[in-house]
């Protein structure tokens, strides 16, 4: 899922000459649903939109307040063209965008979650698939685009030797495994999320029954069998 967030003094949506929605100070959010997106990505992006800090505080501190802190409003507008690609020419290609039915379902999930996490009467909407006239008074201007939500885990072979040892700063570097290890090998699902500038990396394993499939020392002398999950957290700045 991809969004573009604009800090605005006011914004509005008009369709066929009829005013649909209008807001004052707050956020205008253009949102596009990708073909591989799920409910998880839509809900995660909803939380991110409300947490992004685009306003100064009362003491003049820069980028200290989010839209909830200032009691602002939010106008969400569906815009699948955010996923356009022009890699193979000048004509936009929209193959990364979700088909209309899936797009509407997940867009509705997204805006419903925004309303659930904030105040329903402060979150407005456009008209899905309509030709909209969007009026914007951008404050700044200030615009940002949060990283696209990851849509699926990356698969790696389950072999402790593919992971380098934990470093002194508690990060867990991952080395590239040889391609030969991908055949007939149990796999590890690698997923990550970033909330409040902390990255959480989750390594999920589902190997056949064996002694200690995770490669980590068993606790209390027990052997680990079956489904194993290991989670690590460290500051997002370490990925820069």
Note down, in words, how this protein is organized.
Belongs to the DTD family. It is found in: Cytoplasm. Residues 143-162 have a biased composition (Low complexity). It catalyses: glycyl-tRNA(Ala) + H2O = tRNA(Ala) + glycine + H(+); a D-aminoacyl-tRNA + H2O = a tRNA + a D-alpha-amino acid + H(+). The chain is α+β, with helices and mostly antiparallel strands and 240 residues long. It has 2 domains: 2-138, D-tyrosyl-trna(Tyr) Deacylase, Chain: A, CATH 3.50.80.10; 185-211 and 226-239. It has 2 helices and 10 strands. The strands form 2 sheets. Strands 1, 2, 3, 4, 5 and 6 form a 6-stranded mixed beta sheet that branches. It has a 4-stranded antiparallel beta sheet with strand order 7-8-9-10, with no helix packed on it. Strand 4, helix 2 (100-117) and strand 5 (123-125) form a beta-alpha-beta unit. Helix 1 (39-51) crosses helix 2 (100-117).
| Number of beta-strand segments | 10
Distance between the termini: 22 Å
Instruction: From the alpha carbons, calculate the radius of gyration and give it in angstroms.
Output: 22 Å
Give the CA-based shape.
Answer: globular
* CATH structural fold name of the largest domain: D-tyrosyl-trna(Tyr) Deacylase, Chain: A
Compressed to H and E, one letter per element, the order equals EEEHEHEEEEEE
Strand content: 25-35%
Largest sheet: 6 strands, mixed
Corresponding CATH superfamily of the largest domain: D-tyrosyl-tRNA(Tyr) deacylase
CATH class of the largest domain: Alpha Beta
Unreliable segments of 5+ consecutive residues: 151-188
Secondary structure: helix percent: 10-25%
Supply the helix-strand structural class: alpha+beta
**Overall number of structural domains:** 2
Protein name: D-aminoacyl-tRNA deacylase
Catalytic activity: glycyl-tRNA(Ala) + H2O = tRNA(Ala) + glycine + H(+); a D-aminoacyl-tRNA + H2O = a tRNA + a D-alpha-amino acid + H(+)
Family: Belongs to the DTD family.
Organism: Zymoseptoria tritici (strain ST99CH_3D7)
